[in-house]
Amino acid sequence: MSNNNENSRANNTDSAVSALISSISNTVNNEKISAIINVTNVMADAIFIVNADGVFESVNPVAARFFNVTSDSLIGKKWQDCLQEQYRDDYKYMFESWKNNYQTPLNHGPKEVKIRKNNGNCLDVELSISCLPESVVASTPLFICIMHDISKHVKKYKVLENVAKLDHLTGIANRCTLEKTIIKNWQECIVNKQPLSFILIDIDYFKLFNDNFGHVKGDKCLQKVARTIEECLPSKDSLVARYGGEEFAVVLPRSHISNAQMIAKRIQEKILNINFRDLGLPANVKISVSQGLACEYNNQYRTSEALICAADTALYRAKSEGRNKLCIR
Ligand SMILES: Nc1nc2c(ncn2[C@@H]2O[C@H](COP(=O)(O)OP(=O)(O)OP(=O)(O)O)[C@@H](O)[C@H]2O)c(=O)[nH]1
């Protein structure tokens, strides 16, 4: 480290220490606090100290880097204002409640939060807050806050989460997500006495498509079908998932059978209109789907599995009655 850096760090430390000490008039153990601040200033973790009003008393160089400002510029400001909006009120409330009940020590976290950098960007951090003991600060409560940058983990977690939730080929929900979604919607719809519709969609004669045009084009066809179904869904609550091979499932919460039937018909028509010329196939190559629809309303089915079974039976009928057909259970 250069002498310049050492000098500037020493100056920062001195100014932070004197700012803190001058602001804490009743503290009997100023030396201890200076020692703590001196230690935090050379630590690799992001550390700041706030008072009971949530005002920054000291910010070490690593924490200042997290906020993308200088340590000095934060002193005197409310630390909660450096959090992303959605977390601010929780922490304001935490400090307010603590002030009304001094007896319980405020020790919190570690908890994942997002802080706001000076440039407007957000940073994912894990934050813990600990009340400094009375042996260090006699009359003015101070809190030592430690942050760890977890942005790389959050990014990796999101990637893995998508791998776990989505079907690799089509990018729509996979079977596991479908099952979780049905269970969640089943409970909500039963409790709120609302309908829940479920459609199973199976491409007709898909083996022939693969045999005639190859599996690579077969894969592209599955992607087109997934996109087409997705485009027909009415709201964000609805879900299309890959149920298996060339079979798809649609969950329509709060959808009565008439509405679900309309959506299924739209899917049927749009799939008939898919063209494969971009895959180098002749314009007359077309595919169709068979669909089975079932709707839970007024405790018609006892379980979500029974609802799925009903849609499956209806799909089986659609296949046996000639395909390119929608059957309702
Ligand atoms: N390209 C491709 N083909 C798949 C995939 N998953 C399943 N398949 C194919 O889907 C075909 C399904 O064939 P079948 O179960 O006989 O059904 P079908 O030919 O569509 O006939 P029906 O359903 O009775 O109308 C098989 O040829 C599978 O190899 C996949 O991910 N990619």
From TrEMBL:
Residues 29-77 form the PAS domain. CDD domains: GGDEF, PAS. InterPro entries: Diguanyl_cycl_sensor_dom, Diguanylate_Cyclase, GGDEF_dom, Nucleotide_cyclase, PAS, PAS-like_dom_sf, Rev_trsase/Diguanyl_cyclase. Pfam families: Diguanyl_cycl_sensor (PF24820), GGDEF (PF00990). Residues 194-329 form the GGDEF domain. One of its GO terms (molecular function) is diguanylate cyclase activity. Keywords: Nucleotidyltransferase, Transferase. Its EC number is 2.7.7.65. It catalyses: 2 GTP = 3',3'-c-di-GMP + 2 diphosphate. It comes from the Bacteria. NCBIfam families: GGDEF (TIGR00254), sensory_box (TIGR00229). This is diguanylate cyclase. It comes from Pseudoalteromonas distincta.
